[in-house]
Amino acid sequence: MKYQPVIGLEVHVQLLTDTKIFCGCSTRFGAEPNSQTCPVCLGLPGALPVLNKKVVEFAIKAGLSTNCSITPRSIFARKNYFYPDLPKGYQISQFEDPICQRGWLDIKITTPDSISADSVKRIGITRIHMEEDAGKLVHGDFSGRDDGSGVDLNRACTPLLEVVSEPDLRSSDEAVVYLKQLHQIVTWLGICDGNMEEGSFRCDANVSVMPVGSSTLGTRAEIKNVNSFKFVKQAIEYEIQRQIDLIEDGGTVVQETRLFDPNSGKTRSMRSKEEAHDYRYFPDPDLVPLVINDQWIERVRQELPELPEQRQHRFMAELGLPPYDAEVLTASRALAEYFEAGVAAGGNAKAVGNWIMGEITRTLNDSGTSIEACPITPGELAELLKLIDNGTISGKIAKTVFDEMWKSGKTPQIIVEEQGLLQVSDSGAIEQIIDDIMAANTGQVEEYRGGKEKVFGFFVGQVMKASKGKANPAVVNELLLNKLKG
Ligand code: ADP
Ligand code: MG
Ligand code: ZN
Description:
The chain contains 15 helices and 16 strands. By secondary structure, the protein is an alpha+beta fold. The protein folds into 3 domains: about 5-295, no CATH class; about 305-420, no CATH class; about 425-485, Arc Repressor Mutant, subunit A (Orthogonal Bundle), CATH 1.10.10.
């Protein structure tokens, strides 16, 4: 029998607010354990939560950017469970009436041989809700002991959004594309730093299989806290195969929570899946309903940046970029902004794009630098391109100048002057070189004249070499043709 995998993702997005969701403590990562706590996030009796307005605005931004409706009156609920990293004995979350509902994301399905516009698939977003994170247990060597366990509550009460998708995804690849697009949106909005290693963006993957053609979903397993795109793909693929093997062997999939082990690439059972009623959700009496009126939504909408999708289309429509370039150059907001600044500084759009996708990306990758810290400014890149355009230097020499700009921080004009890299377009000087080379290679000249046109490339190479790459290739070609014809 053939099986159809079904996947739904629950993504936790840690919000980039300065302070926690229900108190004024700092959310900064990496501080001394428990140094960023207060009676509210320590869960001391009598302490009252106060909602951070910024969290609400970030949630609205996320909702508007994923086509959700914003709930006019949303409710905070207590999700009750016991664990030592949760001092209150409940997590403040949202259950009924979450802040955002019924949205979607159009994901781009790329088949190996095309990136066509018709391979777009709409993935439903069931809801986005706000909640607080729990603390963290620390085991082993800390506070001068080597065998202890302790709890660090710095992370307790850190604001999270949980973005829940419909079970619309049909393969591990679709799940990864969805996740990457969601990651791109929340980092683009500036509401999340997107750091997956530190857990700022992590996901639970719900996976089931059903016979192809069936309309009844199979029983799902939920794989907890997968924190890289690679692991999401691995975990889902392993889980699909595990469930198929189980069914083929006459077994049944049980609804459970599983853990992914990156070392073995396998998932293993953690606990049987809890149901909503196990948590005894009820409205938190300490927090009033959150009322969001249309003016507030509109104000937040005005603050939204142009999103990746829109910007991609504008790059194609206004700047004439091919779809592929537009997509690559909007991979992050910083990259898109760098590109636009280069164009605004007078660079030709296609050329600026090519240099960013080529030399800049390569050099950034080699040196482990992010575009935000690129030592060459967009304006300097545009200057370099102008030197190519107006014939001052050749495209080849430009690469040398680029490397030097990167290393020394000097402007391209200064580098060209200092190193004598001016392009030679003077036909007299180039003719002299060509004459010398022809005289030294009479055999090849005969071959060319005898009809072996391939030898032309040899001459071009020799002239460029003799001029140390500085001869203007167009002039070289023209003069060579004339002279070789004899
Ligand atoms: P819970 O919060 O208890 O995990 P939800 O009903 O909120 O349960 O569903 C969580 C996720 O599971 C959603 O992303 C949903 O799309 C996904 N899901 C639900 N049923 C299935 C299924 N049969 N197969 C795969 N994913 C599913
Ligand atoms: Mg869940
Ligand atoms: Zn606090």
